[in-house]
Design brief:
Layout lengths: L13 H15 L6 H8 L3 H5 L5 H15 L9 H18 L15 H16 L4 H24 L5 H11 L7 H11 L8 H18 L4
Helix pairs in contact: 1-2, 1-4, 4-6, 5-7, 6-7, 7-10
Length: 220
């Protein structure tokens, strides 16, 4: 009986290294990520990886740049508020897919082309709308502080809605009795069938955009 031929080993490349790194970090988190674990996932040796990407920092730079590539830039045919809202929704969805990414998005000292193109597009959205450079700086910092903070909070919550949150909070309800306001909030709001923490994102984002519109127009 003829033996089955072994499947041909896939050739290693920089793209394949980043593909494997993204999949691995999505699964185990950035803290547990090592070149050795990546080599195992790719069925190769650590030194083989270094032939394509020089070090771990460069791999993380590449992964962050890929996350930026998944985020829609503000559509230039929309007004600045709907354009920025669209970009922020796309960013929250990308950061929810890659829960490790939010703390790293602005930390890289060697940003890639997708990162730079994204920042250029967001700045252009504000500047074309008539924002001063100073107000553009305020707007970008405020929006991204909220965006990344929300993404990190969402990534670390044990549940955000649906049956998972119902089960979790129901199990905690009795323990909350000594704290009446917390208990009331939990019963009247979190335990309601349509509760979803993600809805808080739009509420906060709309407050920020409306406030920026007033500030840009000099309105108190």
């Amino acid at each position: 009986m003829a033996t089955k031929p072994r499947p041909k080993k896939q050739r290693l490349s920089a793209e394949r290294v980043l593909d494997g790194a993204m999949a691995l970090v999505d699964e185990i988190g950035i803290e547990a990520f090592t070149i050795r674990r990546l080599a195992v996932a790719l069925d190769t040796k650590p030194m083989s990886i270094y032939h394509h990407i020089p070090n771990k920092d460069a791999i993380i730079d590449g992964m962050v740049d890929r996350v930026f590539a998944e985020i829609d830039r503000p559509p230039p045919d929309l007004g600045w508020k709907p354009a920025i809202r669209h970009r922020c929704h796309s960013a929250r969805e990308a950061l929810a897919r890659h829960r490790w990414a939010a703390p790293l998005m602005e930390s890289r000292t060697s940003p890639g082309p997708e990162t730079l193109e994204h920042h250029n597009a967001v700045l252009g959205c504000f500047l074309r709308a008539g924002f001063s450079t100073e107000m553009t700086a305020h707007a970008y910092a405020l929006i991204d502080s909220y965006l990344y903070g929300f993404a990190m909070q969402e990534a670390n919550l044990p549940a955000t809605g649906g049956e998972d949150i119902q089960t979790l909070v129901a199990a905690m309800s009795e323990a909350l009795e000594p704290w009446p306001f917390l208990s009331r909030f939990t019963v009247d709001h979190v335990l309601q069938p349509n509760y979803d923490f993600k809805a808080e994102f739009d509420f906060g984002l709309n407050l920020i955009l409306d406030g920026l519109a007033r500030a840009a127009n000099g309105t108190p």
